[in-house]
Specification:
Structural class: mainly alpha
Oligomer: single chain
Strand order of the largest sheet: 1-2-3
Distance between the termini: 84 Å
Helix content: 40-55%
Length: about 425
Amino acid sequence: MAVREVPKDEHTKDGRKWVYEFRYKGKRYKSKKYLTKKEALAAERAKYDELDNAINQSSMTLEDLFKLHYDYQKDKVKATTLSNYGKKLKHFESIKNIKLDELTIQDIEKWKQEVNSQKLATRTKNDYMKYLKSALNFAMKWYDFNFSSVYNKITNFTNPDEVPKEMQFYTFEEFQQFISVESDLKYRTLFEILYYCGLRRGELRGLTWKNIDFERKELSIVQNVVNISGDSGYWQITTPKTRTSKRQIPIPDILLNDLVELKEEAKKYYGFSDEWFVFGDISPIHPDVLRRKKNENAKKAGVKQIRIHDFRHSCASLLINNGASVTLVARYLGHSKIDETLNTYSHVFQNKLDDIVDTINSLNKKYIATDNKTNPKATNLEDLKFGEVTLLKVKNNKITEAYETTDAIKKALDVK
């Protein structure tokens, strides 16, 4: 160890003049300038401790890498994302002790076989794979590992025999049956917001009275409430899921009336503030309460059980089946891209294809001239009333393009 005072002409303007300088395992380390000798000595000891505790890259294992990656991400991702990282680690038990410089594609394939033996959805398995690849990328960027012989050969999980789960949702009639058995104003209003506004669970829990504009008849989504380490953990306010999740949603009259009445009830409690959560008070409603109440109502009403998130799907189905365009549904739900809306609800749009075909047939009947000489083109195309009709192009059961305006539909059909 060596702490010394630098020459006077190297002192800083604020009097910093002490540095440490030493060699460790053949490498020279020199510090910045410190104000006092005591500060320099403390910094030197800290640097030695850091070097002594540093993991030797030649012995670094996957488990070591996951820990380093976790620590690196602490101030860069949301708390829920960090918590999910921790939950994934148990799925790498069989390969966690493999040294990084000995990792092979065969190790990865063997791990994939073990994961495949578990009853997990392909999407879940690929989420684990995504995490593994993210950690390997981190190792290549920050620790100069070379995984090119492994990384480029890694493939995602696939299961051609997996039957996609059918999306569950309530029709308007089913929701009316569901809500008819709820006599508590708070829960009736809660389920109306889920169904009519399509909020995510965290958005619902994060809703405060100041987010509701009774004059403009709209509510604003500006924050999210999540439970860290699962629903049994502590709750925390975070930003919405994506940038476009911040949005304003118009409030239907039936919901607005219930919100007005619910706020009047809330104001009777001591200490009431617009900062209070709409469904809660100074603390948001717990996820277990949501599930329990939903299950009770579904059973009492004699309708199928769906998840809380499925009320969001129900809202999307309600909008689509009543003529809302793709763009409008995406904006209403806070999707970042229209593609997300199309792919998530392609089955719902598929049900509307017959209506679209009827529209195209009607359009072509008006377009085709009965006499090529005297009437080479139809002239009354503008008389067609498209309303909210959306023309969709479908390939391999997936919607690839959408046209929502008269001009766009005409162009897609090559109508002059």
